[in-house]
């Protein structure tokens, strides 16, 4: 059996640049539920950090000391950074938004904001940057067959193996159908595999996502859960 069980995914890294002494730590605390957050309060320092370390996303306040948010985004883009960046600001006119997007930001969120919206916008800009392609929604999960990626409700991204992805694709495209082990073997695996292989990969899928993503129908087989 070629596939192996992958290690648990690490949290995506996020660089948060916010100089408000109250809002910055609060945002870092909330975002830390999903991301490995690095908090910085200075635009010039943030540029150095962004160039020296690897991040999956950035949240940039518009007004910063030393280097303002727009200049920071422009400078990072000129330096070759492809990290998706979201500008966060109280300046919410159409012209302000256009300037932010033209500077190279992937999105623009106006204060005050709800954290649910911030999380959703971060998920969106990361998906676009990663080029995931069309997705299938499974409960609160999102499955991207083209890239074999699954996203948890809290933004955790996990890459499935070829076989895991093929199994989940089979179940997700036929959400009301129960598949016997023999049917799954024919559709996903090779003639050299046994029914126990199906059970093994169901276990792998559940471990990488959550137990209820695949439902066991006793005496019959498996079907998609969370429908």
Top keywords for this entry?
single chain, 227 residues, alpha/beta, Rossmann fold, Arc Repressor Mutant, subunit A, 5-stranded parallel beta sheet, 4-stranded antiparallel beta sheet, 20% strand, elongated, disordered N terminus, WalR-like, Sig_transdc_resp-reg_C-effctor, transcription regulation, Sig_transdc_resp-reg_receiver
Strand share of the residues?
A: 15-25%
Mean pLDDT across all residues, rounded? 87
- The sequence of SSEs as H and E is EHEHEHEHEHEEEEHHHEE
CATH class of the largest domain equals Alpha Beta
Overall geometry: elongated
Termini Cα gap: 30 Å
Low-confidence stretches: 1-9
Using only CA atoms, what is the Rg? 21 Å
Strand tally is 11
- How many structural units, i.e. domains? 2
Question: What is the helix fraction of residues, given as a range?
Answer: 25-40%
Based on secondary structure, the structural category is alpha/beta
How would you write the strand order of the largest sheet? Answer: 2-1-3-4-5
- The CATH architecture assignment of the largest domain turns out to be 3-Layer(aba) Sandwich
- CATH-wise, what's the superfamily of the largest domain? Response regulator
CATH topology assignment of the largest domain: Rossmann fold
| Major sheet characteristics | 5 strands, parallel
Domain OmpR/PhoB-type: 133-226
GO biological process, one term: regulation of DNA-templated transcription
Subcellular location: Cytoplasm
Organism: Microbacterium enclense
Describe the structure.
The protein has 227 residues and is α/β, with parallel strands linked by helices. It has two domains: 13-130, Response regulator (Rossmann fold), CATH 3.40.50; 136-224, Winged helix-like DNA-binding domain superfamily/Winged helix DNA-binding domain (Arc Repressor Mutant, subunit A, Orthogonal Bundle). 39% of the residues lie in helices and 20% in strands. It contains eight helices and eleven strands. The chain has helices at 23-31, 43-52, 69-78, 94-103, 115-130, 162-172, 181-188, 195-208, and strands spanning 13-17, 36-40, 57-61, 85-89, 107-110, 136-138, 141-144, 149-151, 157-159, 214-217, 221-224. The strands form three sheets. The chain has a five-stranded parallel sheet with strand order 2-1-3-4-5, sandwiched between helices. A four-stranded antiparallel sheet has the order 6-7-8-9, covered by helices on one side. Helix 7 crosses helix 8 (195-208). The chain is elongated, with a radius of gyration of 21 Å. It starts with 12 loop residues before the first strand and ends with a strand. InterPro entries: CheY-like_superfamily, OmpR/PhoB-type_DNA-bd, Sig_transdc_resp-reg_C-effctor, Sig_transdc_resp-reg_receiver, WalR-like, WH-like_DNA-bd_sf. The modification 4-aspartylphosphate is found at residue 61. Residues 13-126 form the Response regulatory domain.
């Amino acid at each position: 059996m070629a596939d192996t069980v992958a290690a648990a995914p690490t949290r995506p890294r996020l660089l948060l640049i916010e100089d408000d002494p109250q809002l910055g730590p609060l945002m870092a605390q909330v975002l830390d539920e999903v991301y490995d957050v690095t908090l910085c309060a200075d635009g010039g320092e943030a540029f150095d950090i962004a160039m020296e370390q690897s991040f999956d996303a950035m949240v940039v306040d518009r007004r910063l000391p030393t280097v303002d948010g727009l200049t920071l985004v422009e400078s990072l883009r000129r330096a070759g950074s492809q990290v998706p960046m979201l500008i966060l600001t109280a300046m919410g006119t159409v012209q302000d938004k256009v300037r932010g997007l033209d500077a190279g930001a992937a999105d623009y969120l106006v204060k005050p904001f709800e954290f649910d919206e911030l999380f959703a916008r971060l998920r969106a800009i990361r998906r676009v940057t990663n080029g995931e392609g069309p997705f299938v929604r499974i409960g609160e999960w999102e499955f991207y067959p083209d890239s074999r990626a699954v996203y948890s409700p809290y933004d955790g991204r996990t890459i499935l193996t070829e076989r895991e992805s093929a199994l989940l694709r089979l179940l997700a495209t036929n959400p009301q159908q129960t598949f016997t082990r023999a049917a799954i073997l024919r559709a996903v695996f090779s003639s050299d595999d046994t029914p126990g292989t199906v059970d093994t990969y169901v276990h792998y899928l559940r471990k990488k996502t959550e137990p209820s993503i695949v439902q066991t129908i006793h005496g019959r087989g498996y079907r998609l859960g969370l429908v």
